[in-house]
Specification:
membrane; ECF-type transporter transmembrane protein EcfT (EcfT); mainly alpha; 266 residues; transmembrane; transmembrane helix; ABC/ECF_trnsptr_transmembrane; two-stranded antiparallel sheet; 9 helices
């Protein structure tokens, strides 16, 4: 759990920390959306360059981001294997029984690795430099136009804020339960896969009960404080755009134009 970097917020004073969370969310969404259509090496090179600049502006070490990639490495390898061995085409580079590696499959596998890593790192940069409460407030602000069609934006933002606050609490609770079980002689890292899977079951029950108890305590606390609706809540920190947001918007706009240009040329 200590290696799970995505979703965590680390306080800092780098340039990206001063950018409004709404701008960072929009930039991340645009970046991920463009990566879906990337199908050339120049486009991926440009996307990598934009990401590298973003990571530098976070002021965090590259080792931290590598730690965030390692927990999802198995998913990357699994996806690469699917693309590598089950994509048809010619020429065939390797063939053994039902396994076959083709040149299109190899290229698609490399594209998948790049796309996956770039998306994870960009999302990590967003969460590392933005507090969970700021992300919830930014999403509520961005979804305000949906109020015109009776979408409960304030309630959705409140639910998101509470969920984001519960993530570190559940991780801490998981760590406590695991240490308690280990102190009683239970091993979670030895034995066969079936044995280790069975060892996880005693962790789920106290975690589930603890999560329900925390939710009930929170509901009671909100009720006794007279909470009725999320629509009329005031804000301690009001979001506002600054010159950093203008620079970020111009830089992203230039990236989008160059990216579309590369796709159009190829």
């Amino acid at each position: 759990m200590n290696n799970l970097v995505i979703g965590q917020f680390i306080p800092g004073k780098a340039w990206l920390y001063r950018v409004d969370p709404r701008t960072k969310i929009l930039v991340t969404v645009v970046y991920v959306f463009l990566l879906i259509f990337a199908n050339t090496w120049p486009a991926y090179a440009l996307a990598t360059l934009f990401l590298a600049l973003t990571l530098v502006l976070t002021g965090q070490s590259l080792e931290l981001y590598w730690r965030g990639i390692k927990p999802v490495m198995w998913l990357i390898i699994f996806t690469v294997c699917l693309q590598l061995f089950f994509t048809g085409g010619t020429p065939v580079l390797f063939h053994w029984q039902f396994l076959k590696i083709t040149l299109p499959g190899l290229i698609n596998a490399l594209y998948v690795v790049l796309r996956f890593v770039l998306i994870v790192l960009m999302s990590t940069a967003l969460t590392l430099t933005t507090p969970p409460t700021a992300i919830a407030s930014a999403i509520e602000s961005l979804l305000k136009p949906l109020k015109a069609i009776k979408v409960p934006v304030a309630e959705l933002a409140l639910m998101l804020s509470i969920a984001l606050r519960f993530v570190p609490l559940l991780m801490l609770e998981t760590d406590k339960v695991m240490k308690a079980q280990k102190s009683r002689g239970m091993s979670l890292s030895t034995g066969s896969l079936i044995k280790r899977s069975k060892a996880v079951l005693p962790l789920l029950i106290p975690l589930f009960i603890g999560a329900l108890q925390r939710a009930l305590d929170l509901a009671n606390a909100m009720e006794v404080r007279g909470f009725e609706s999320a629509d009329n809540r005031t804000r301690y920190r009001v979001l506002s755009f600054s010159k950093q947001d203008l620079v970020a918007a111009l830089g992203t706009g230039l990236f989008v134009l160059l990216f579309i240009g590369l796709l159009w040329i190829n």
